[in-house]
Amino acid sequence: MDQNIFLGGGGNDYSQPQSLTLKYANRHGMIAGATGTGKTVTLQILAEGFSQAGVPVFLSDVKGDLSGLAKAGSEGHKLHQAFQDRAQRIGFADYTYGACPVTFWDLFGQQGHPVRTTVTEMGPLLLSRLMDLSEAQEGILNIAFRVADEEGLPLLDLKDLQSLLVWIGENRAQLSLRYGNVSTASIGAIQRRLLVLENQGGTKLFGEPALELADLMRVDENGQAVVNILAADKLMGSPRLYATFLLWLLSELFEELPEVGDPDKPKLVFFFDEAHLLFDDAPKVLVDKVEQVARLIRSKGVGVYFISQNPADVPEDILGQLGNRVQHALRAFTARDRKNLRLAAETYRENPAFDTEEAIREVGVGEAVTSMLQKKGVPGIVERTLIRPPGTQLGPITKAERKALMDASAMKAKYGQLKDRKSAFEILQSRADAAAQAAAEAEEQLETQSTAEREFSTARRYSGSRVGRSSSRVMRKKDTFATAMSEAVIKELKGTTGRRIVRGILGGLFKAR
Ligand SMILES: Nc1ncnc2c1ncn2[C@@H]1O[C@H](COP(=O)(O)OP(=O)(O)OP(=O)(O)O)[C@@H](O)[C@H]1O
Ligand SMILES: [Mg+2]
After folding, report:
1. Which protein residue has the closest C-alpha to ligand 1 atom 3?
2. What does DSSP assign to residue 396?
3. pLDDT digits over 430-454, tens only?
4. CB-based contacts of 159: which residues, under 8 Å, 6+ apart?
5. Which residues, 6 or more positions from 227, have their beta carbon under 8 angstroms from its beta carbon?
6. pTM above threshold 0.85
7. 335: burial class by Cβ within 10 Å (0-12, 13-18, 19+)?
8. Ligand with smallest separation from the Cα of 392
């Protein structure tokens, strides 16, 4: 028999077990419902179920209340009796409390281990989205990535991108010949956006050691898989950073995981809370990309579950791909609410026992209209399901408990410290230093030279033949110097002082020629 995750009880007296079939769990899903209707608890019990089945989970904790997954529920909890009653009502005889192995992550490195990626890995499309760039600015960013590639400049952190932009500004004229107009205005605009991104905490996201996906897919010695919790409460203040990061993670998974078709159970399940943030005023290319990734990532064994107040927040093309659905109550105050409700109801396979639309309006807290994929991936008939109570703690763990778990984690040693290896910033810096030094040496040489020239001018009054020889020797010397200060070195000068020195010297030299 196929392995599954117990969801709750459906049918007339909530006595018919409803469950999510693991074999179809990679065909995505949705948890929707108005505020306070039970979405978070549903996510919690699904995460518990996946973890117990050995399927690693990645989820974002928007309100900070999911850290409770790391701790077993207890008889002392104020809802203990309510949970027991609920379990009994749905015939959940082996309901017990138990904890999940949890790893905490945090883009800001405070409530979890730092999650980092590199600028190169993020790529121009997502970075443009992250910085809200115009099409023209995105074009420049594309050139920047190209140039970094050609010049062998690793783009790890925002400092690297910043210094590359400076370099591009300085070599604007030449780059424009190759790639079309590279305007100072666009470069300036990107630099300003970069500042905004830094202020939003982007500095922390970019750098090394970058997150290794295998670290999200660990299973403990008991065969229980890790639930990865991304602290997202503070992150919600930068919705763009939040959405882009999760999208990046999804596309990384897509690119790195091998094709597995339809495995017995997923390799990883990804819960995307506040999913509307992903689509709010997102350009069409990006929505298309999400749609594409969602469609293709299935065969890599990754299930994606969107959590949202209203299913209408998710674009239709994507909604159509979400096979496993838990729809908590929706409100029906306004005409638009009623329209959304009707549309939501229409997407289910009707149950003759009740009216879907009415049920979505009426279900109580912790109750939902559910439809899970059945044999051959066919959507199940819609059910009114009383969701099972959680086995882990409802509500957050304490700060001290979180710290203890973080300290005990192997991820602490691996990701705790930022490592700044040689990348674009350092390389451009050292090239600039080298050029400045060459410039200084040249200056010295020139000084010696001018003494020689002075002597020679004096000498020339006496002998015509010496003029030719000496003069040509001096010219040769200049030529050698000009070659040494090859264009490549000159154009890579970064420090203004260095550049001014070189310009001064070369200006004189070239005129002399
Ligand atoms: N399956 C359940 N078993 C027991 N109690 C539940 C269940 N689902 C919800 N509840 C109760 O309802 C409360 C609210 O649920 P929950 O926090 O999941 O709502 P929500 O939809 O996530 O709300 P919000 O939109 O505000 O985040 C829970 O704190 C809990 O007391
Ligand atoms: Mg919630």
Report:
1. 389
2. P
3. 888 888 888 888 878 777 766 666 6
4. 425
5. 47, 50, 51, 56, 57, 59, 69, 70, 100, 101, 102, 103
6. no
7. exposed
8. 1
